[in-house]
């Protein structure tokens, strides 16, 4: 993978050189030959990072198909520009590395809004152009200088109906109550959501969570440590649940439907006190397609049709309030901002996480290990 | 100029380009890591000071060492028995065993890790069988804890432990063991006084290999430890990708590198490393 | 002294060894006398090493019995037989000093440290390696290693010492020297030596008795002189020394090259063959002459250069004569 990256960079660089006349055709062909790549492919690949395409950096899997159909098609129809994908997952460290190395190959990253808070001020992100992108087409507080929330996901929990059939857990308080609800829990390993859940369980009101009282949260987390295991990826918690390793699990709420299906309804999703997480589109500094193109792309994603398609395809909840009312009946239980759920949920504060996330994750890891 | 040239073997001219590449591509990044460890986030030894100041870092390092040592002990001793069996059984069985051993190299670590969950997990085959038979009333917690990590790691490491031992045992002259018996030594005397000392270079090689590989373990502890067993490799990855504390990550990486080099150096004081890595035992 | 040497006698009774369907040793009957130097001689594959390994206990016997001083040892494991053994290639313990190698047998028998020390010193003296006690085998020459192996095998005063081609790895000059030392040590310790070799000269010069083996069976047993002078079979005659085979009165006779007289020209009164010299090879002390006889035989004749100064040349006509007792009738069936 590193090799590929190196090869790609070398050829892209030489494609530029060739076009600008710094490199003769024969040398360029020889380089292509040595790398086992047809020249046309390189020139096309080079175009990938040029103005007629926008490169979206996402997490692979279904995302490619869904982002393409939900946003890409409309974007191409409106602007004539194509969309390509880099599926290596835009973790904060990778974005920083890409920008620091001066080799920016992605235009827009499917990231978290708190990434915009931590990476923006350090000069790793392009500011959002709110002349093109609309602040009204997202939830208040989720349109920040360096990133805008395009979708929402959420932290909710599932429980085993066979374990707690008559008296099911209703909220985070029950989730953390191992005396009345015995059994193993699965919590998210990277702190996010788990900390807020702990505070709510300890009696903090949903609208008074921030700034997080870390000591109080970690004490609560530690109080059920013997009955907890921790997951790092959606597929991991999914397998923990379907293999009955746990009787309750914090999960990404869009997984709720899959889990209910895979366990034939044995596990049920609880949305009460679920925490809405703003998923954001952010733009690496010096993105190849230029600011205007990528801002148009983000604006396209804000539109109601795109929002509904993302929900249908990926299970990601719209963040554009105009779309809330159009969430279809069968999606209501699994969409965090649906009419069914919107009054029960709490909202994540990306600013707190952007500023304190690193320390919070480390403190959390320390507490659980 | 000529005087210099006379002292440099012309063969170096042939390997020089490769040598330069190796130095540039290998040593460069390593130096970069070292550099990062004393400059990020600010110049100084602040990252290293954290080792003293932060209980959690020390605890992670300690957990890592503990798990690596236990893994190494079990992998090498089990590997020793397996290698012994392979060397002393019939050729046919030996080939079967060798095939099984090599096949396990090709199975992805993720597959192996999840196989253990299916076998020994809370709802795994073993627990289910025991419960059905009435041997236990509640599932035994094999997985999602340190025991799980150890089981997974030992399993992964055994083939690595076996190979150097196999080579070492195969190169032994069986007549030496015959001589020992002939001189009146019992089987166990022959083993402890002759066989074991003569396979010591293999044991050292196998120990080094397993221990060093264990230090870098990531996937198995993350999955089988249920998030509770945090080892240095995973912590480094988190600092790089999630919390952006690259200085801490670089410091830990430098620490591991220094640890491995120190280990090699200590070993080299007790025995010729060339003997450990495939040289003759004489 | 605790470990006084005394030889043991061995009886090998109808011993056979099969490896699957392959018969490596076939019904061997042999009496090995107390204190004698007995050599098992044969080409590779003749079963001599297999027989030795059965005596040592490293191989089970398929049928038959082996008895030491009248007691069967067929079911005694190798480590309980108390036989010393010098292995092919010596099989010294490379990680131990010369002293520890030699003392190993006593050390595994949990003898007192002082006793071991004294005994090892004695052994070092026997093989003249006093100055090498703290060396490791890798730091010794081939001949020295061989002596360490011998001292190690003799240290616990075994009644029988088995030697498996112990000189195979040495060069020719050193080999002769070590042969002398071995014989000397044998004389001094009185242990029964059973020596395996494929080298007929070694066998002839060292042994009290030689057992010639062929295809897993004993071809002939006897003192070197008996075997040389009176070989019973064509194989024995040709394996031990050189031999011509001549037909006389319908029987086959073995005739040693040095027992033939050669005469230039024709008309010698005792002439038994006439022929021409096909080749002459000079060996210093003697010449080997190959004569093609009128009966179309090739007869080798060794003549003493000093005592026989006839000017012989290739192509010349010669006559051959020998005394009646020089030709030994072979048992050809």
Automatic annotation (TrEMBL), chain A:
Pfam families: SBP_bac_8. It comes from the Bacteria. It is found in: Periplasm. The keyword Membrane does not apply. The keyword Signal applies. Its main location: periplasm. Keywords: Periplasm, Signal, Transport. PANTHER family: THIAMINE-BINDING PERIPLASMIC PROTEIN, THIAMINE-BINDING PERIPLASMIC PROTEIN-RELATED. Belongs to the bacterial solute-binding protein 1 family. This is Extracellular solute-binding protein. It comes from Ruegeria sediminis.
From TrEMBL, chain B:
It is a multi-pass membrane protein. It is found in: Cell membrane. Keywords: Cell membrane, Membrane, Transmembrane, Transmembrane helix, Transport. Residues 61-267 form the ABC transmembrane type-1 domain. The chain crosses the membrane at residues 12-37, 57-84, 96-119, 147-167, 198-224, 244-266. Coiled coil: none annotated. PROSITE patterns: ABC_TM1. InterPro entries: MetI-like (IPR000515), MetI-like_sf (IPR035906). Pfam families: BPD_transp_1 (PF00528). Belongs to the binding-protein-dependent transport system permease family. CysTW subfamily. PANTHER family: ABC TRANSPORTER PERMEASE PROTEIN, INNER MEMBRANE ABC TRANSPORTER PERMEASE PROTEIN YDCU-RELATED-RELATED. This is ABC transporter permease. It comes from Ruegeria sediminis. The lineage of its organism: Bacteria, Pseudomonadati, Pseudomonadota, Alphaproteobacteria, Rhodobacterales.
UniProtKB/TrEMBL annotation, chain C:
The keyword Nucleotide-binding applies. Residues 10-240 form the ABC transporter domain. It comes from Ruegeria sediminis. The lineage of its organism: Bacteria, Pseudomonadati, Pseudomonadota, Alphaproteobacteria, Rhodobacterales. Keywords: ATP-binding, Nucleotide-binding, Transport. One of its GO terms (molecular function) is ATP binding. The keyword ATP-binding applies. This is ABC transporter ATP-binding protein.
